[in-house]
Amino acid sequence: xxxxxxxxxxxxxxxxxxxxxxxxxxxxxxxxxxxxxxxxxxxxxxxxxxxxxxxxxxxxxxxxxxxxxxxxxxxxxxxxxxxxxxxxxxxxxxxxxxxxxxxxxxxxxxxxxxxxxxxxxxxxxxxxxxxxxxxxxxxxxxxxxxxxxxxxxxxxxxxxxxxxxxxxxxxxxxxxxxxxxxxxxxxxxxxxxxxxxxxxxxxxxxxxxxxxxxxxxxxxxxxxxxxxxxxxxxxxxxxxxxxxxxxxxxxxxxxxxxxxxxxxxxxxxxxxxxxxxxxxxxxxxxxxxxxxxxxxxxxxxxxxxxxxxxxxxxxxxxxxx
Length: 321
Known about the structure:
By secondary structure, this protein is mostly helical. The chain has 11 helices and no strands. The chain has helices at residues 3-27, 34-57, 61-104, 106-129, 134-137, 140-149, 161-181, 188-210, 214-247, 254-286, 294-312. Helix 9 (214-247) packs antiparallel against helix 10. The longest helix has 44 residues, at 61-104. The model has no long low-confidence stretch (mean pLDDT 84).
C-alpha cells in the first residue's frame, strides 16, 4: 500500500468528521441536520475502518493516535449522546407522558377498579353471612393465626426484609403482567384477576375486622397499598384495552386497533413497574416495621395516595412549534 496516496485519499473524510464533531461538541447533537447526522454515522464507520487498516499497515504512531482520538470522539457523541437522549425521553415520559396515558385510558382503569371493588364487596357480604365462605378464599393458616392466636401474619417479614421485598416485587409484577396478558382472552382472565384479588382483600378485611385486628392490618396495608393497588388497577386497565381492540375495534381495522391499544397498554406497563418496585420496598421495609407507629403508617399511606392522584392528574406541558 502506498501510504502517502492512501492518506491523501482518506484525509478529506477525517477532516470532515473532525469538523462535524467540533460542531457537536460545541452545540450538541441537536445542532446537526438530519443529513449531517447520517453523514456523521457513516464517517465514523469509515474512519474506524481506516484506523484498523492503519494499525495493520503500521503507518506510524502519530497517525494511529490521531485516528484513535477521532473515532473515540465520534463514538462518544453518537452512542453516549443517543443514550443521554433516551434517558431524557424516559424522564419526559414519567414527568408528563405516563399521567397523560392514565388520563386517556381512565375509563378502562375505572372499570378494572370497579371489578376489584365488586369482588371486595361480594367477599365482605358473604364472609359476614356464612363463616365457611372465608375458607374458600383465605389460606387456612392465616385464618388459624388470626382466629386462634389473635395475631397478624405480617411479622414474619421482620428480619428478612431484603428477601421479602424482592419476593413481593416479583409477585406483584407477575400479577400485573398476567392481568395485562389476560386481555388476549378477550379480557376474561383480566376480569377474573381483578375480581379474585378483590375477593381476597374483602375476605381478609372481614377476617381481621371480626377478630378486632382491623386497625393494625390496615396500618400495614395503607403505606404500600396506596401505590400497589392503583398499579394493579392500571394493569387491569391495560388488559381491558387489549380486550377492547380484539372485541370492539371500532373505527379501526382489528389489526390497527390491536397496534394502537397495545401501545397504550405497553405505556401503562412501563409506568407501573417503578410503582410496584417502590411499593415492594415499602412493603418489605416500612409497612411491617414495629418501630413505626400505626398513625404514621396511615399518614404515609394517605400522603402517597394523594401524591399519586395529583401526579396522575398532571397536565402535559404545551409543545412549542
